[in-house]
Write a structure and sequence with these properties.
Elements: E1 7-12, E2 21-28, E3 34-41, H1 54-57, H2 65-71, E4 77-78, E5 87-88, H3 91-109, E6 114-118, H4 124-138, E7 143-145, H5 152-161, E8 179-183, H6 187-190, H7 192-204, E9 209-213, H8 219-222, E10 226-228, H9 235-248, H10 254-260, E11 261-262, H11 264-272, H12 276-283, H13 287-299, E12 302-306, H14 308-311, H15 316-329, E13 339-342, H16 349-354, E14 361-362, E15 366-367, H17 371-381, H18 394-402, E16 408-412, H19 416-419, H20 423-432, E17 435-440, E18 453-456, E19 465-468, E20 473-477, H21 490-505, H22 518-528, H23 541-547, E21 550-551, E22 578-579, E23 598-603, E24 630-632, H24 634-640, E25 647-651, E26 656-663, E27 671-675, E28 715-721
Parallel strand pairs: 6-7, 6-16, 8-9, 8-12, 9-10, 11-22, 12-13, 16-17, 17-18, 23-27, 24-26
Antiparallel strand pairs: 1-2, 2-3, 4-5, 4-18, 14-15, 19-20, 20-21, 23-28, 24-27, 25-26, 25-28
The structure holds iron/sulfur cluster.
Length: 722
């Protein structure tokens, strides 16, 4: 029954990894039912102190009843044959069908015939249940997440150098930094509330320097003291060149390096092969600018902010590590205003890693490759063992489905038919899989038509749980209104399938999923962190309620979490020393050549989010960029004979795409840019069927060998006037 009073509920923004606190206003909506009526920033939340960006501030508009009536998945649907439309059905029938089909496929083809593809938009509790279902119940590590497209190179970079997947900094460091070094990130668009904080810190401290390394002159670069428009993919050469300057000018913190690190001699030998002139030539930058950046960096305190420009690369782990090396070499870590700070793209990529919801991870940052870690997780779950064989990561999972090796796909809260690279392969996978379950709050995604079973999930403002933001801060997400129509929380759907499946696969045994609430799931996750780097045994839902969001670690007995890690110079490696691992620069997997002479990169716009399931329902958010464009330098546009508004065929080694041209003098000649948000409903220009796949028709599935993150930031293309 609708409640008649307007109410306020504290929760967290569902978009980016800054994790801003919001206050949701709810009450009777236009249709008389309980509805979200307004949203404002939570003044008490330490991530944003009341600020919201354009996306967060319009969350309520995307939750209007008339919007939801068009956009939301309302009831379970199943189809009995691929050539038949799905029909609505009840939850019990849909869940029984899913459990029965998964059991059949697992019994016939083994546990690894199942692939579960989840999302950094899920809450920690959702992630936990999915991960236990895959690894504990079914016995496969074939669970991965769209966070693989986002943060896995940052994870691998931290682990390689510092020994643990733990961003060592906090937002407060912006107020203490002398130099902010932004690499491969555009926080003015992608993390606007953090960028506002940076702007305020610069106003308060006019001596603060902002250096931005980015091939594009983004809004962030526009405001920088020094912009380094490096050639796409040349980040490692830039960082080695900066280290060479530091070595030449005696700016390396030799005492710190000797006391707290290992492996510097090999890196020093490599850096001496990259003197500033060589780095400048490789990066296409003035040597003086590289030298200036190196001096400011070493002077510090220096805070690096980095994101997909480093991560989405076939050498993403090397790029992350090479930047962290600069912090270690100059002792710019473990103190206020200093450290390498990866900006999380999604709202809960961190939480997903914390529960081990990826193909190569286990609960609480345990490592799948470690026999001891596997035994600990098995003991926590009351099982004799958990599987050792590494699972398929995001792109590999769909490649395996396209090859017929994975036969059932369960996709939750993500839209791989738009967001994964090499869309033709992805769509072959979705067609070839014998059974596809899509669990989503939205009905209109490019993936939904492939669903044999569609399970409607409740969305933001309708579910309880937690998320972890970029600075390791755990915040509550709270339900302000009931789930839309017949939708259910993601953890509850996963539990309900799991309970049915365990009745078939391990009958008569106590349930592995005895959860009646999100809090019970979280409590089990909390216990799994005991003694780990992310120990939160001192935290509880009650503490989050009473004292607000908290950073990890927060072990039993602690009063608060740690703002900064590694202040004592001890790192999370076996010997306590941070590691330098020398890696020479590597070219992108698809270097440009005379056949494909342009380097295509992608990125976010200021007012849109991911595939626009939610932001695409808010007309105001199209004021900034009303339609997709392919941006190129005016000189390149002139060379191929196009101007603003003309169309070009952009063709990669995989597909062709018709796109409208926008000239942008902020791009390097030879580089072209397209926003990541638009899919097949939007792109297509003149109606070419080949164009009806979105920008990821073109992108490359090449992976970083360590992180398995695809190289979404670099695809070689050719352009032809359409
Ligand atoms: Fe939401 Fe990120 Fe904007 Fe904050 S900065 S309001 S978390 S999208």
């Amino acid at each position: 029954a609708p409640r008649t009073q307007r109410r306020e509920t504290r929760s967290t923004c569902c978009y980016c990894g800054i994790g801003c606190g919001v206050v949701i206003e709810s009450g009777p909506g236009t249709d008389g039912r309980d509805a979200i009526l307004g949203v404002r920033g939570d003044e008490t939340h330490p991530a944003n102190f009341g600020r919201l960006c354009s996306k967060g501030a319009t969350l309520h508009l995307s939750a209007a009843p008339e919007v939801y009536a068009q956009a939301r998945a309302a009831t379970p649907e199943v189809r009995t044959a691929r050539d038949r439309p799905r029909q609505p059905c009840g939850w019990d029938a849909a869940l029984d069908l899913v459990a029965g089909r998964l059991e059949g496929i697992v019994r016939a083809h083994g546990p690894d015939a199942l692939g579960i593809y989840v999302s950094g938009q899920l809450l920690t509790e959702d992630y936990y249940v999915f991960n236990k279902l895959a690894k504990g119940l079914v016995g496969t590590n074939n669970i991965d997440t769209n966070s693989r497209l986002c943060m896995s190179s940052a994870v691998a970079g931290y682990k390689r150098t510092l020994g643990a997947d733990a961003p060592p900094c906090c937002y407060d460091d912006l107020d203490h930094a002398g130099t902010v070094f932004v690499a491969g990130a555009n926080p003015a668009f992608a993390h606007p509330v953090l960028y506002r904080r940076l702007e305020e810190a610069r106003r308060r401290n006019p001596r603060m320097r902002l250096v931005v390394a980015d091939p594009r002159r983004t809004d962030t670069a526009e405001g920088a003291d020094l912009h380094l428009p490096l050639a796409p993919g040349s980040d490692v050469a830039l960082f080695l060149g900066m280290l060479a300057v530091m070595l030449a000018e005696d700016l390396v913190a030799r005492d710190y390096v000797a006391a707290h690190t290992s492996g510097f001699a090999e890196l020093e030998a490599l850096a001496t092969q990259w003197p500033v002139d060589r780095a400048a030539a490789e990066c296409g930058l003035p040597g003086d600018d590289i030298a200036a950046a190196a001096r400011w960096f070493a002077q510090g305190p220096t805070l690096s902010l980095y994101c997909q420009g480093l991560n989405q690369s076939s050498s993403g782990t090397d790029k992350n590590a090479a930047l962290i090396h600069l912090h270690l070499a100059t002792a710019q870590i473990g103190r206020p205003g200093a450290g390498p700070f990866s900006l999380t793209g999604q709202p809960n990529a961190m939480g997903g890693r914390e529960v081990g919801g990826m193909a190569n991870l286990l609960s609480a940052h345990r490592d799948l490759a470690s026999e001891r870690d596997r035994a600990e997780v098995a003991a926590l779950w009351g099982l004799p063992s958990v599987p050792a064989r590494p699972g398929r990561t995001a792109v590999e999972m769909f490649e395996a489905a396209a090859a017929g090796e994975i036969r059932a796909l369960w996709i939750a809260c993500t839209n791989p038919a738009q967001s994964l690279p090499d869309q033709r392969m992805v769509r072959r996978a979705l067609e070839r899989a014998e059974f596809v379950v899509v669990q989503d709050a939205y009905i209109g995604t490019a993936t939904a038509p492939y669903a044999d079973v569609l399970l409607p999930a409740s969305g933001w403002g309708e579910k309880d749980g937690t998320v972890t933001n970029s600075e390791r801060r755990i915040s509550r997400v709270r339900a302000a209104v009931p789930g839309y129509a017949d939708s259910r929380e993601d953890w509850r759907i996963a539990r309900d399938v799991a309970v049915r499946l365990e009745a078939r696969l391990r009958p008569g045994r106590p349930s592995l999923f005895p959860y009646a609430s999100a809090e019970q799931v979280w409590n089990e996750h909390r216990e799994s962190t005991r003694g780990r780097d992310l120990d939160i045994t001192g935290l509880s839902y009650a503490m989050l309620e009473a004292e607000g969001p908290q950073q990890w670690p927060l072990p039993q007995g602690a009063r608060e979490g740690l703002a900064r890690l590694y202040a004592d110079g001890r790192f999370a490696t076996a010997d306590g020393r941070a590691r330098f691992v020398a890696s020479a620069p590597r070219a992108p997997a698809e270097p440009v050549d005379r056949h494909y002479p342009f380097a295509l990169t992608g990125g976010r716009l200021r007012d849109q989010w991911h595939g626009m399931s939610r932001t695409g329902t808010v007309p105001q958010l199209f004021g900034h960029a009303p339609e997709p464009t392919l941006d190129l330098h005016p000189a390149d546009a002139a060379r191929i004979g196009v101007g603003d508004g003309d169309f070009v065929y952009a063709t990669s080694r995989r597909a062709s795409q018709v796109m409208r041209v926008r000239r942008d003098p902020g791009l390097r000649p030879g580089s072209v840019f397209a926003a990541m948000h638009w899919g097949e409903e939007w792109v297509g220009g003149r109606g070419s069927h080949a164009a009806a796949l979105g920008i990821n028709a073109l992108t490359s599935p090449a992976l970083d060998p360590a992180s398995r993150q695809p190289e979404l930031k670099h695809t070689a293309v050719k352009l032809l006037r359409a």
